[in-house]
Design brief:
There is one protein chain. The protein is of the alpha/beta class. The chain contains eight helices and ten strands. The chain has one domain: Rossmann fold (3-Layer(aba) Sandwich).
């Protein structure tokens, strides 16, 4: 069953699949010829519908100004729950009819907290270009490091808050990391120089949940992705906290 919100643009579609709901959001002034695909994976103790509405994900995606299709999928709601989407490819095949993007579009995965289980299962998928971990780096350092260093084309954007014991350890072994001691002021709108760096690490002081509910960290991390902006989005627009 397909449910689509009224209005021409931006466009939001909610799909029901055998692995749970999937939300697809397309910004105003979207250009399919240059778009990327950004997959958002929620953390524990919420489902994708709750995360979509309670965390105002559409608003935060819009704040990024990126020319991308944003896909939010179901994920484990607790440490004992199964992973609904064990690979990037299985998810993209399931929603292929709604993906108005080029066949070679960059595929980027961004996840919060307990999303680490899903994202770790995706590291063997060749379509994955960039991984962004929002306080989601709970151990498994060798796997993430091995995935990253296997190709100079791969990127890691890492945010440590509760996970600082692991994130500090990883990035101490990656001297090329661009490190931020905290998120800049929302007025700056971005992480300076982050788009040009292969590895970005932010030592967050915002708090674990505020990373995805506050309206500052998520749009700022998204703006660090190497994707074009939509034509009506200014690269200098400040972030507007929720």
């Amino acid at each position: 069953m397909l449910m689509t919100e009224a209005g021409a643009s931006p466009q939001h579609t909610r799909l029901r699949t055998q692995n749970g709901a999937v939300h697809i959001w397309k910004p105003a002034a979207y250009d399919p010829s240059t778009a990327g695909i950004v997959i958002y994976v929620h953390g524990y103790y919420v489902d994708v519908d709750d995360a979509w509405h309670d965390h105002q994900l559409a608003k935060q995606f819009a704040e990024s100004g990126l020319n991308a299709l944003f896909v939010a999928c179901e994920a484990p709601r607790g440490p004992t729950h199964r992973i609904p989407w064990p690979s990037v490819s299985s998810l993209l095949v399931a929603v292929a009819g709604k993906l108005d993007a080029p066949p070679d579009a960059k595929v980027i995965a961004i996840g919060h907290s307990g999303a680490h289980r899903t994202l770790l299962s995706w590291l063997d998928d060749d379509r994955l270009d960039t991984v962004a971990l929002l306080d989601a780096h709970y151990g498994e350092l060798p796997r993430v490091r091995s995935w990253l260093v296997a190709s100079a084309e791969r990127r890691l954007i890492d945010v440590g808050d509760l996970t600082r014991p692991w994130t500090d350890q990883l990035h101490s072994s990656l001297p090329e990391t661009l490190v931020f001691e905290e998120f800049p002021s929302p007025d700056s709108g971005r992480l300076p120089g982050a788009r040009g760096a292969q590895i970005v690490y932010v030592r967050s002081r915002l708090g674990h949940m505020s990373l995805v509910t506050g309206g500052v960290a998520l749009p700022m991390v998204l703006r660090a992705l190497r994707l074009p902006m939509v034509t009506d989005a200014s690269r200098t627009n400040p972030i507007r906290p929720l």
